[in-house]
Amino acid sequence: MINRRSRAPANIIWSLALLLLAAACLAYSSGYVAAHNSANNSDVPPKQPYGDYLAGLHAVIHSDLRAAAEFHEKALALDPDNKMILKKAFMVFISDGRYDLAKKVADKLAELNVSDSMVQMFLFLEKAKSKEYDAALLALDKLGNAGVYGLFKPLFKSWILLAQGKSVEAETTINTLLKTKGFKGFKQFHAGLFYDFTGKSQLAEDLYSTSLIVPGAMSLRIVEAYGELLRRLGRAKDARQLYVNYLEKAPDNAILKQALYDVDHDAPAAFFIKSENDAMAEIFYSAANFLMQDDVRTPATVYLRFANYMKPDFYLADFLLGQIFEVEKYFDGALEQFDHISQKHPLYIIARLQMAWTYEKMGQLDKAIDVMTKLSVEFPDNSKILSSLGDIYRMHNHFKEAETYYSQYIGNLKTLEEKNWSIFYTRGIVYEQDNKWALAEADFLKALELHPDQPQVLNYLAYSWVDKGKNIKKAQKMLERAAELRPYDGYIIDSLGWAMYRIGDMTKAVEYLEKAVLLQTDDWAINDHLGDAYWAVGRKYEAKFQWRHALSLKPDEALVAKIRSKIRDGKK
Q1: Quick one: pLDDT at residue 62?
Q2: Which of 208, 381, 418, 422 has the CA that lies 20 to 30 A from 148?
Q3: Exposed, middle or buried by CB within 10 Å (0-12, 13-18, 19+), for 49?
Q4: Domain 476-572 maps to which CATH number in 1.10.10.10, 3.10.450.50, 1.25.40.10, 3.30.530.20?
Q5: Which of 67, 69, 64 is nearest to 88 (CA)?
């Protein structure tokens, strides 16, 4: 999801900015000291804002928005008219959701006649939210039409005009926008929302259905809006079919699953957009989603904050913002966003699980398990929660606990389907790690029964057989099949090479293991296997090189002494 290339230049720019600013600060300090000494003046110099500003920039680079906001606030207290600090502070305050501080800075920049599109956008939103519609339109006119603002402005203007009761002018603005080039799906969807809200259902339906087939459209969000319209029109069957069709593409989408449940249980349908504020929030959410397709996170973050400003309970925006913060390693911010999502919202379970995994990334395993455990009490039959508990225990080598939750998951299955192969495979790995081979073998075989020729299962079971010296010929055939299905999987090629080694075909063993090392360059076990094969064919210097390389890749502690012994004495 993340475009590292788009982030690198930003980091370089900020690093250069820090260096330049540091140089400026040093020059200022040197000049001041020289002047101070020449005048033999003992007065204490006034405190400057640059230390806090530099600290704030450093916090931004390291994705600690909370600290960045606090440092920028301190810097502004020392130099409240500094335009450079004001502009940067505004972006930091908005990104961290500190709207009151952002408002003060925006007003100050306006007072200083500093032109900035994001600031002007916020000033427009502030007027729109407070229902000062004439002032909002004036602020919107100052925004300009460059880039994306030429797309945003007509949409915003149409909703403000509608709020003023000027529906004809509002429709004219929307229709003019639809005739322009570019962003076709985006414009049709938001025009559909406009006509849906104003009660022109046929126009809305036409726009929704047309926008669904535009390449790159936000189809799932359109489906939600279109489905609600169909249900309000009494066309529950059409809405149901729409949900079913798109659940085939996104079977785990919690919102569409809830929509399907609602239509099957005759839950009342609601308007997708309930106010002009909702509509403007939706524009920003759509824009953020498009940006995140290319992993452009900084403007996406600001747009999502604008969305939350206009619609504080916009949980989709909270969730996407939490995901961005998690990737940025701004974990406190991620936790705050996930925690904001209502228990009644379809994303609640997923958000709580994301919270738990965020705690795990922070090294707070107890908190992670506590969140998941409480969630499992709330939803005892939810397979996603049970598998997540199994996964987190497995990842931290608590195999008995992992077995318990995986077994509970399996016990809740009413019928077994092909897709269930993975839970048997995963529990099999846990059993194998916990030295319960008979149970592990049974689970691997069950996984293959559900999904024959599944390469991961073929590899794990066959490799285990080879390592135990049993079913070697059968294991060889299974590994050959797995390698045929996944010819560029280094682990599978390693398993096949190791099988050749165990049955004594050293030529084939070397061939496969050399290929495995090239495919998977960072696994100590593959290098260790290749070293053994080289030693067996008399390539002793190369064998020791591979064993030394295996040591550099940090093997399991219990095997370090064994590998060192081979380097010293050779393979016995």
Answers
A1: 85
A2: 208
A3: buried
A4: 1.25.40.10
A5: 69
